[in-house]
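fyi for ur records
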Amino acid sequence: MNTVQIRPAHITDEATIYQFICDLEETTLDQPSFQGVYRQNLINPAIHYLVAEQQGNVVGFVSCHVQMLLHHGGKVGEIQELFVQPCARNQGIGQQLVAALKAIGVQEEFVNLEVTTNQKRTDTIRFYEREAFHHTHIKLVYPMLMRLILVLLLFSCSALPVSAQSTPKNEARLEQKLQSALAGFRGNAGVYVYHIRTGKRVSINADTLFPTASMIKIPIQCGLFDKIHKGELSYNQELVYKDSLHYDDGIVGSLKDGARITLSKVVMLMETISDNTGSLWCQALAGGGTAINTWLETNGFHQTRVNSRTPGREANRGQYGWGQTTPRDMANLLLYIRQGKAVSPDASDEMYRNLGRQFWDGDGLSQLPPDVKVATKNGAVNQSRSEVVLVHAPHGDYVYCVMTKNQQDQSWERTNEGYALLRTVGSIVWHHFEPKSTWKPADGYEKWW
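which gave:
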């Protein structure tokens, strides 16, 4: 029997999964509609898409949508689709896919993992019963789509917006604390917080565009790793530095003309110390801003863009600088990498490791215990300070992003209002999700900023 790998689905699996769902439903689905739903769901942290891979081929797929339900008093996962290619059946692949969802359920503390299937699929029902699912409910279906079409025909009016799932409610207490922290800030600020296990979140100007500053180096890394994944670059290939690459006098920009350095080290310097010359070099190797923006759009990140040295984006560069994003989009991109969905699981793993080595730790990170694992990137220009952090906290991982723009305080001291806001938000979110933590920064920590 060939070894089967269960991994998160990613964008390159779209065509295969489309065919799987068509076969499952015994019909031909509208491909553009499928594509839109698939790509949007792929970046939704409350939806899990897993595939089974055998000898380099995807042979199975399962999807699970997660909700917080009042009548269960907690989080419930529901299997929406499960499909295994006929040639790969009777090998336990379906069991492995379900087992992987059960493992996610344990990690995220589901109250239940549920499934609904058509009563005519007797083999499917027997499968789930063997997997210890209990037959407890009867599902009744009211076909909304046909009635919606009828209403449109009868009244010729605009359709009300229909959401595929209920909008998650904000964590009210945390939102109140953060709103208080933002009050009086002399500029514009946005915050997005998402607790991965519980689904609790806060959105304050979370869909407003802000300058990325050096946070754009996360998308640059994604574009670069996409090239490596396609075999167009090698992670450990040797590069030759030329004076024509010089942007500033950071480490890479201080190299002598003709100096040799591996690509992996340039990437490390880009993410760890935010080396600008190295980052622009990586951007060029990734195919430039246009190629990186195409990757972002294809993977569902519609608000994040590279502007600098990107044809057609000169006006955006004048307004936002090197790049632009929203707090929600940037937090979701970091989570996308953490979940193994960016480029490939192995590429995501290495990118996440790179983001776990941060030199600039004097702001939001200074409000977290030093033994807590984080992945992060920050950015600063005259009128903007920003930070995105995924925290592996004792009571559940969470991700947050803070961004500012139009700051009146343009100083470059620790007391800058933007830097102070990053520290305040980092502290508030940590103590909200870890209320019993007695840790606080050591006396005198300020001098290490």
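The first helix runs from residue 14 to 25. thats all i got for now
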